[in-house]
Design goal:
The structure holds two protein chains of two kinds.
Chain A (H helix, E strand, L loop, with lengths): L3 E4 L2 E4 L5 E7 L5 E7 L5 E8 L5 E2 L10 E5 L2 E6 L8 E9 L3 E4 L3 E5 L1
Parallel strand pairs in A: 2-11
Antiparallel strand pairs in A: 1-3, 3-8, 4-5, 4-9, 5-6, 7-8, 9-10, 9-11
Chain B lengths: L4 E3 L2 E5 L4 E6 L6 E7 L5 E8 L4 E4 L2 E6 L4 E6 L8 E10 L2 E4 L3 E6 L1
Parallel strand pairs in B: 2-11
Antiparallel strand pairs in B: 1-3, 3-8, 4-5, 4-9, 6-7, 7-8, 9-10, 9-11
The chains are: A mainly beta, B mainly beta.
Chain lengths: 113, 110
C-alpha cells in the first residue's frame, strides 16, 4: 500500500495567479500521476511524473499551464498557472503499487474567483 | 481516448437493498478496477478483476466481467448509509495509466 499526503486540501485563488499542489508519498515510487476532476465529472489524467525526467503530458494539457516537478522518488508538485474560473476543479495525485492498484491523495479543491 | 461509460449516472435506494452499477469500455484491457470516492475526496480502491476472470467477490461486493461485451458490473449487497459515494470503474490498458469511467453517484436512504 501507499499513503499520500496532499496539500493544500482546498484553496480559493484569484484569476491570473498560480497554485502549487504538493504530494508526498510514504514510499519510493517510479511514477506519480496527476488527475483533474471537474465538477460532477470523472477523473482525467493530466500527466505522468517520472523522477529525473520531464513529465509526460496527456493530450490537451501543456507544460506551460501545468508545470510539474519530481525532485525525488517520494515527492512531486503540480502547479496550475494563470488561473481562470475554468480551472476550478479537484486535483488529485496518485501512485500505482504492484503495477495495478492505485492510491490517491485526498485531493485539492481549487476555486478560482 | 478510451473511457468507460457507466450507468446509471445516479442511483438512489433504501438501506438494505442491493445496488448494481454497470461499466462499459471500448478496447482490450489487462484488468478492470472499481473505486469509491466520498464527497469529492481521494479515491479508494475497492476491487480488481483481471481480464481472464469472470467474477470476483470481496465482502459485500461482487464484480463481474464480460470481455466479449466489454462490460463489468459492481453489485453492493445489503447497502448501508456509509456506502453513499460515487463509484468509478477504471481500466488499465497501457503503462499503468488508468482510464476512468464517468461514475455512478449512489445514495443510500435510511
Amino acid at each position: 500500500s501507499a499513503v499520500i499526503s496532499q496539500k493544500p486540501s482546498r484553496d480559493i485563488c484569484q484569476r491570473g495567479t498560480s497554485l502549487t499542489i504538493q504530494c508526498q508519498v510514504d514510499s519510493q515510487v517510479t511514477m506519480m500521476f496527476w488527475y483533474r476532476q471537474q465538477p460532477g465529472q470523472s477523473l482525467t489524467l493530466i500527466a505522468t511524473a517520472n523522477q529525473g525526467s520531464e513529465a509526460t503530458y496527456e493530450s490537451g494539457f501543456v507544460i506551460d499551464k501545468f508545470p510539474i516537478s519530481r525532485p525525488n522518488l517520494t515527492f512531486s508538485t503540480l502547479t496550475v498557472s494563470n488561473l481562470s474560473p475554468e480551472d476550478s476543479s479537484i486535483y488529485l495525485c496518485s501512485v500505482m503499487v504492484g503495477g495495478t492498484e492505485a492510491f490517491f491523495g485526498q485531493g485539492t479543491r481549487l476555486t478560482v474567483v | 481516448s478510451q473511457q468507460g461509460e457507466e450507468d446509471p449516472q445516479a442511483l438512489s435506494i433504501q438501506e438494505g437493498e442491493n445496488a448494481t452499477m454497470n461499466c462499459s469500455y471500448k478496447t482490450s484491457i489487462n484488468n478492470l478496477q472499481w473505486y469509491r470516492q466520498n464527497s469529492g475526496r481521494g479515491l479508494v480502491h475497492l476491487i480488481l478483476i483481471r481480464s481472464n476472470e469472470r467474477e470476483k467477490h470481496s465482502g459485500r461486493l461482487r464484480v463481474t466481467l464480460d470481455t466479449s461485451k466489454k462490460s463489468s458490473s459492481l453489485l453492493i449487497t445489503a447497502s448501508r448509509a456509509a456506502d453513499t459515494a460515487s463509484y468509478f470503474c477504471a481500466t488499465d490498458t497501457r503503462a499503468q495509466k488508468l482510464v476512468f469511467g464517468q461514475g455512478t453517484r449512489l445514495t443510500i436512504n435510511p
